[in-house]
Amino acid sequence: MASLHPVQLVGAGPGAVDLLTLRAARALERATAVVHDGLVSDEIMALVPRAATRISVAKRRARHTLPQADIGALLVRLAVEGHRVVRLKGGDPFIFGRGGEEVAACEAAGVPVEVIPGISAAQGAAAATLMPLTHRDHASILSLVAGECRGLAEQDWTGLAGPGRTLVIYMGLAGAEAIADKLIADGLTPDTPVAIIERATQHSQRLFRTLLADLAGQIGRAGVTSPALIIIGAVARLGVPDTILTQIAEAAPCPIS
Predict the structure, then answer these.
(1) With 90 as the cut, is the pLDDT of residue 191 above it?
(2) Of 31, 119, 178, 218, which one has the greatest count of Cβ atoms within 10 A?
(3) 121-248 belongs to which CATH class?
């Protein structure tokens, strides 16, 4: 086992190819097997060597290509077969990327593992919209929450959002109405500012602003689809006007050469 190549859990970042870290790009160049999520952009997938084996384990609501335990077993099997394995994930492997479970699976099998961090979706969305997640005048506390996770209904979100705080919700589109109701029931006012950022850093990125009580309505009217983040708090009023976001998106990305 000691001679095996380590399985590399690689953060692909929010989508723009030039936001990959150098270490991530080098890992992709050397990969002979890439196990990837559905949220990894086409531009980043284009960096995968043509000869490399590509395996999609994309997860969608109520439909998983492979159960998580099987993904761990797949990574171990590919490594034992001698591959240079890259497990390619949107954002960062350790921020709602199930990286901890995959590290545990490799370690349990005696397979070496390395984590290459990526720019998180929250960081990418904030930068793409010039919307600071913390600000001396508006927010000194930042919370990241999974909107689709085990035991959501039983979780206490009291204090996660409110004056002086920013709440960023990942994977919250499908449960947006329930999330808004939960936050309001836990003490947040219905007129709390909200921003919804779809496909941040990519050419097709979109930004919508509304109030917490209208969160689900805005998502429905705009036809927002995954990947998207919901940012709740005073900072949601900051950043670029919605109308010029597309212009920034068209100017920003550039390929890695």
Answers:
(1) yes
(2) 31
(3) alpha beta
Domain ranges of the chain: 7-116, 121-248
Sign of the torsion formed by the C-alpha atoms of 58, 59, 65 and 71: positive
User: How many Å apart are CA 161 and CA 81, to the nearest integer?
Assistant: 47
Distance CA 55, CA 227 (A): 20
* SS3 of residue 1 by DSSP: coil
How does pLDDT run across 12-21, given as a tens digit for each residue?
Answer: 999 999 999 9
CA angle 117, 224, 138 (to 5 degrees): 65
**Which CATH fold would you assign to the domain 7-116?**
Cobalt-precorrin-4 Transmethylase; domain 1 (3.40.1010)
Q: What is the pTM of this model?
A: 0.86
DSSP track, 53-114: EEEE--EETTEESS-HHHHHHHHHHHHHTT--EEEEESB-TTSSS-HHHHHHHHHHTT--EE
State the DSSP H helix or E strand holding residue 122, giving kind and residue range, or none if neither: helix 121-129
State the pairing for strand pair 7-11/193-198: unpaired
SS3 134: coil
d(CA 233, CA 111): 43
CB within 8 Å of 7: residues ≥ 6 apart? 75, 76, 78, 79, 85, 87, 102, 106, 111, 112, 113, 114
- Per-residue pLDDT at 251 exceeds 60: no
Active-site residue list: 37, 59
